[in-house]
């Protein structure tokens, strides 16, 4: 993962509610253990018709949305079964953040572990942002804030550990490995304390 400190982007809008993980990445694409190429299959059943041709009306097929890295979605995004392939597919598609008024807990945790920022805002704010997808939003990870072009700031919840991992560009294992020396020093000191106490 790469460090995620700030992001500026216009948005892609999927207003549907209850977008589940099988819609994000259908089960038939779960055989791979690598992330590369999964973005091609993200929302596959919505992006292509029965013959495999792109549906022109689907937002991710529209040329003006190319390169946008923020998705605004209807409430209860990422519900359904747990599959890490869902955030893998979205990040491979080029997304770095998902905004919704409700994001499923398991998806949220998987997203944070894979460098995808889930942002929960009030429903009224989400609906307003959906109406202005071309606005370039500014996301500040360190400050837990989203800023609109007119200067309004909205705070979003993000626990301290997840924020640190995003800012450092590491997952949980990477976080521990980066502190291997400190952990080793603590363990040695603890062994010495226990030896003296005995």
Give the SSE string: EEHHEHEHEHEEEHHH
At the third CATH level, what is the topology name? Answer: Aconitase, domain 4
Assigned CATH architecture? Alpha-Beta Barrel
Number of helical regions: 8
Please tag this protein with its features.
single chain; 198 residues; alpha/beta; Aconitase, domain 4; four-stranded antiparallel sheet; four-stranded parallel sheet; globular
Structure description:
The protein has helices spanning 21-24, 44-47, 85-92, 105-113, 123-130, 160-168, 172-178, 180-197, and strands spanning 6-9, 11-14, 70-73, 97-100, 117-120, 137-140, 145-147, 153-155. Helices cover 34% and strands 15% of the residues. The termini are far apart. The protein has a 4-stranded antiparallel β-sheet, with no helix packed on it. A 4-stranded parallel β-sheet has the order 2-3-4-5. It contains 8 helices and 8 strands, in the order E-E-H-H-E-H-E-H-E-H-E-E-E-H-H-H. By secondary structure, it is α/β, with parallel strands linked by helices. The chain has a single domain (6-197), classed as Aconitase, domain 4 (Alpha-Beta Barrel). The protein is globular and about 70 Å long.
Task: Chart the SSEs and their pairings.
Elements: E1 6-9, E2 11-14, H1 21-24, H2 44-47, E3 70-73, H3 85-92, E4 97-100, H4 105-113, E5 117-120, H5 123-130, E6 137-140, E7 145-147, E8 153-155, H6 160-168, H7 172-178, H8 180-197
Parallel strand pairs: 2-3, 3-4, 4-5
Antiparallel strand pairs: 1-6, 6-7, 7-8
């Amino acid at each position: 993962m790469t460090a995620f400190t700030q992001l500026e982007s216009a948005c892609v809008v999927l207003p549907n509610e209850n977008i589940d993980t099988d819609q994000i990445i259908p089960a038939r694409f779960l055989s791979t253990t690598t992330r590369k190429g999964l973005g091609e299959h993200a929302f596959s059943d919505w992006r292509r018709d029965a013959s495999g041709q792109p549906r022109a009306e689907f937002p991710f097929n529209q040329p003006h949305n190319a390169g946008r890295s923020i998705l605004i979605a209807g409430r209860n995004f990422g519900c359904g079964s747990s599959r890490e392939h869902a955030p893998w597919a979205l990040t491979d598609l080029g997304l770095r953040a998902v905004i919704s008024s409700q994001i499923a807990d398991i998806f949220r945790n998987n997203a944070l572990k894979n460098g995808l920022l889930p942002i929960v805002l009030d429903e009224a704010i989400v609906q307003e942002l959906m109406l202005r997808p071309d606005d370039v939003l500014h996301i500040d990870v360190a400050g837990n804030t989203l800023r609109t072009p007119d200067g309004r700031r909205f705070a979003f919840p993000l626990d301290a550990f997840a924020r640190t991992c995003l800012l450092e560009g590491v997952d949980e294992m990477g976080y521990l490995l980066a502190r291997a020396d400190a952990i080793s020093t603590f363990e040695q000191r603890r062994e010495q304390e226990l030896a003296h106490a005995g």
